[in-house]
Structure formats: structure tokens, C-alpha cells
Amino acid sequence: MTEKSITREALLASFGALESQFTSSLKNAQALEQGFDASRAKLVQAISSHLQNAQKSLPLANPLQAPLNNFVATMTQTSREWDVKVAGRQKGVEFRQGFEDSLLVFVTGKVKSGKSSLGNYMAWGHTDPTDDTKRQTLPERYPKYQSHAKVEVEGGDRPKEAEKKREFRVGATEATSSIQSFSLPGLTWVDSPGLHSLKEENGNLAREYLDHADLILYTMKSDAPGRASDLAEIRDLIHKDKRTLLLLTGSDDIEEDVDDSGDLIQCIVMKDAARRAKQQDYVRGELKELPDSNKLEIVSISSRYAQEHANDQAAFLDSGIGPFCATLQDICQSEGVKIKQSVPMRNLHHFLVNCENDLEPYQKLIAGFSPVMRKLDESLENQISQHSREGQNDLKRFIDTFFVGMENSRDDADRINSQLKNFNSKLGEKFQEITNERLQAIADDLTKEFQASVKSTYQHSLLTRIPDFKLDTITEQVEAGIRSGTKKRNAGIGSLLGAGIGFLVAGPAGAAVGSMVGGGLGSATGDSASIRYRDVQITVGDNLQDIRRKLLDTHCEALDVLLQKNSTNLWQEFEGSIKTLLNKLSAEMAQFDSELQKILNKTQLAL
What pairing do the DSSP bridges indicate for beta strands 298-300 and 244-249? Predict the structure, then answer.
């Protein structure tokens, strides 16, 4: 802190001289912020659309619903937080727009830390100005008061109270519950509700506008400077690159004295220099981790003492107000214009960095899909095995029921073959039904949409044709009767023929010989009597059970193959759709981040 001392009037003259130079970069910052808003809206709309479509395509019981819901909830929360941040920024920007020709000095600190008293002193030269004081003020030094945002809390100031009374309210526990200001050429002085107020709304309101100040004066009562809550607020301001001056207010004591009449009176005296220096060193020591903490500007002041000793140069210097005004003048003349120009862009830069940090959870959310997908894959394998077993049992019951009904017709091959032919088409329909039912059950666990690629491509003609039913038979001979011999018949014929031939050759004697010879020859050409047999086909079995087993084996194997094949197709399609979703989400995030980085680079270059 410089030991130079100037009066309040000299400080106000310095601000007035720079009024024409206080032009800000607010328009440039607003243009960049509009670009961010467009990118943000595009991101939220795109991701919301992708997630909603994915949610609709999945059954409620699908495990992927959980990470999808987390993503939706996080995106919704982030979008809501961004809306709040943007709305808060918009309030501040609109507030700042009214003070483009002045340095915006924002006074903040805890309740009852001397903010309003200091503001009144800077406006009028008195901590609690009277109407006479106001009437005696020169027109060019007459402050213009304005009331801004307000929260309705018990005990707070009334609507537009500062504007109507042309001063800040002091004395009450919760004196200020609104953002209020006064303006003089080149200077806008803003008074705010106390931080860490019993009314949380007061502190929240102050923080909404704090970021949009050019210069921040943080007040702490000298009775207890450097409390943890104060230090936390100061650290936050410094980390945000806010130009901040620390004020230890009320650096005075009340002592008793005797006036000229001998009456006991109370006098205000400054705390001795050693105590003030010790308090400043303590605060600086508590903030030693901050960059350039040894350069922190900390001023011990007493507005009331300065008011009472305005015409005593030494006492005015001792009040700390003179050095405080000199410090403000140095800041105004050396940094004021630069601060005014850089604050909007710096605010936007920090806002965007904060938004960038909000994107970090999304990569974790995207990565969170992988373990769920692995579990789904494992679960699908178990489901395929289960549905294959159940489907095969259904086929077995259907086939067995048919073959049980064939038992009574096993001796009629034609009838059974006819029934088998009819059963062949029914079995094909049943196979198709069971296959698609099982595939549908598997698909329902993954996705609501039963894709065409999942349906069974079964063609019954590709399976083994039902074999013809055949009876197993053997041939046996059975007795058909007795067959007569031909010897006696042939002998008689031979005798007659021989006798005739002998009679012609030798007469009666030749006939006798011929008859004997012919009878012998005829007997030789005949055979004896025998038993007659016929062939008979005897059924010893059939292939009906072989057909049943073949049909069962073939169709059960085909069912398992089809479930495996089509489930694999289903998984590949499902996995592909999820990967596509994640790729889309990642691409949207990457695109937004790229656009955000470009805007951040522009804000950085402008600082």
C-alpha cells in the first residue's frame, strides 16, 4: 500500500477525468457468448434426441436403461445448471450495460462489515448524511442512485429505498437486501447484501452480480479480520482473477475523555499503527498460498474517523481513507481502462472454463456402457442355451405326441406314410413357431424392435425329409396240402401203348410183351406223391421309432443352430446400434468441445 494520501474529492476528480476512456469490450464478449449458446443448444438437443431414441428402443428391464438414464439425468442437470449460469450472466451483463462509461466498483463482505457506511462516505463525505449535507453538495458531485435486483427478506431495505433517500441504509442487522448503486462521473459504486447472511438469499444475490465488477472492495471488520469464511470468499475472488482490494473497516476505538465543560464524553480514536499492521500481516499470512500474496493490498480504514477529521491532514491520513483513496486513484489511472476493457472477456473466459469442466463426467458415463455390454453378452449366451433347451423340449413333446398316436396303425404302412406326409408340413410350422418364439424372447430382453434380421430363416425343405415308413418282414413256407404221384398213371398209359404196338408187330404174344415193357417205362417217367408248400410274409418290426428319433435329432440340432446364428445376428445388430449411439454421443461432445476451445482461445487472446 502506498502512503500517499488524497481526499475523496481528488479521487472523484480522477475518475471523472477518465470517464471518456472507459469503453469496454462487452460487445465482443457478447458475440462470443452467443456462439457458445448456439453450440450449447445444439449439443443438448442432439444428445437428448439420441438418448430418447435409445431409451424407446430398449425394454424397461434392459440393464442398459440404467446408464442411459444416468446420461439423461446428467445431461438434464448440466443443461439446467448452464441455464442458471447463463441467466445469471445475463443479469450481470444487463446490469453492466448501464455503466459502460465508468469503473464499476463493487463492495462486498459480511453483514455489518461497514459496506454501506463506506458507500455513504464516498458519495457524500459522511457515513450517515443529513439532508443539509445533501443540499450543500455541488451539482457536479451529486450522486445518482439506482436500485437493481432485490430479494424479499424480513428486515431488508424497502423497494428503491436507496434511490428515494439518496443514501445507503445503515445500522440494521440486515440493512441491505438489494443491489443498489450510485454513480458519479467515471465511477459507479455498488453496495450489496452481506455474504453469510442469516438470509441466504442475500448472499446469493450479491454473488450473482459480483463477477461483473471491474474492481472489488472486500470489507472485513477489524474486530475479527481474516475469519475462515472471509478468507474462502477472498480466495475465490483471487482465483477468478478479480482485481480485489481488502479493507479492514472500523479500525478505530472509542475512548472516554473530558470536554472543556468537564463533562465525560466518548471520542473515536484510530487503533494504533502496530495493531493495524499486525492485523494486515495476519490476513496476508492466511492467504500466503495465493500467487503474489505479499503484494495483496490491505488497507485499515475508519470512515467515521475520516469524516470527523476531514480538515486535519494528519488525522485524515491516519484514518486510512486518504491512503485508500490514493490506492484507488493509482488503480484507476494505471489499470482502470485496462480493467474495464478486460473484465467482460475475463468473466466469459472463466464462465466457459467452468462449463468445460462440466463435460468431464460424460466420458465416464460413456465408458460406463462397456461393463454393462459385457454382462449382457454373457447373459445372452446363457439365454440362448436356456431357450434352446426349452425349445427342444417343446419339439420333443410335439413329435412324441404325434408318434404315440401312430401306435395303433403300425401294421398299415400306407396309412402311416400318409400321416407322416401330413405331419411333415405341421412339423415345419411348429418348428417355425418355436424358433421365432424363442428368438422373440431373446430379442425382447435386448430391444423392443424385433428386427427382420432376427427372424428365423428356417426352410423346412432343407431339413432331412421324413423317411418312408417300412415294415420289417421275413418269408416262410407253410404246408398247402398233399400232391398225388404220377407213376401209377404213367405206367397204365405205358402198358396200353406197349400192348398196342406189340399186337401190331407180333400179334397177341407181342401185345403181352409190349404191355409189360410200356408199363415199366411209364412208371419210370412218373413221380411219387408229396406235400405242397406256399410262401408267407411275416412282419417282425418297423422303422417308426427310427423316424421319430431322426426327426427329433434333426430338428433339435437345427433349432440350436438357428438360435445361435440368429441370436448372434441380433447381438451384432444390437451391439452395433449401441456403439453407433456411443460414437454419436462422443462425436457430439467432441464437436462441442472443439467449438468451445475455439471460443476459449478467442477470449484468451483478447485478455
Answer: parallel
C-alpha cell at 601: 482461445
* Calpha distance 324→118 (Å, rounded): 11
| Short-list 369, 404, 266, CA closest to 579 | 369
| Residue pair 603/349 in contact by the 8 Å Cβ criterion | yes
Given a contact cutoff of 8 angstroms between Cβ atoms, the answer to whether 83 and 13 are in contact is no
Domain at 8-24+100-358, CATH from 3.20.20.370, 3.40.50.300, 3.40.50.1100, 3.30.230.10:
3.40.50.300
pTM of the model: 0.65
Closest by alpha carbon to 498, among 524, 478, 475, 480? 524
Task: State how far the Cα of 554 lies from the Cα of 72, in Å rounded to an integer.
Answer: 48
- Parallel, antiparallel, or unpaired for β 178-184 and 144-150? antiparallel
Which tops the pLDDT comparison, 207 or 275?
275
Question: What number is the average pLDDT over the span 53-71?
Answer: 82
Angstrom distance (rounded) from CA 290 to CA 239? 8
**Euclidean distance between CA atoms 200 and 142, whole angstroms:** 34
Q: 3-class DSSP state for residue 112?
A: coil
Residue 14 has, within 13 A of its CA and on its CB side, a CA count of 20
Residues facing residue 482 across a β-bridge: 531
Is the separation of the CB atoms in 440 and 549 below 8 Å?
no
Residue 483's DSSP bridge partners are 530
Burial letters 23-41, b for 16+ CB under 10 A, else e: ebbbebbeebbeebeebbe
Write down the domain spans for the chain: 8-24+100-358, 368-445+543-583, 472-541
Residue position matching grid coordinates 483478447: 606
pLDDT at 361: 82
| Cα distance between residue 24 and residue 340, in whole Å | 5
Does the pLDDT at position 516 exceed 90? Answer: no
Give the whole-angstrom CA distance, residue 232 versus residue 392. 71
How far is residue 472 from each of residues 196, 407, 541, 544, measured CA to CA in Å? 103, 16, 5, 11
CA atoms within 13 Å, Cβ hemisphere of 541: 3
- Alpha-carbon distance 242 to 593, whole Å? 26
Average pLDDT over residues 20-46: 86
Give the count of beta carbons closer than 10 Å to the beta carbon of residue 482. Answer: 9
Taking the C-alpha atoms of residue 471 and residue 410, their distance in angstroms, rounded to an integer, is 8
What are the pLDDT digits (tens) for 272-321? 999 999 999 999 999 988 877 777 899 999 999 999 999 999 999 999 99
Neighbours of 467 (CB within 10 A): 13
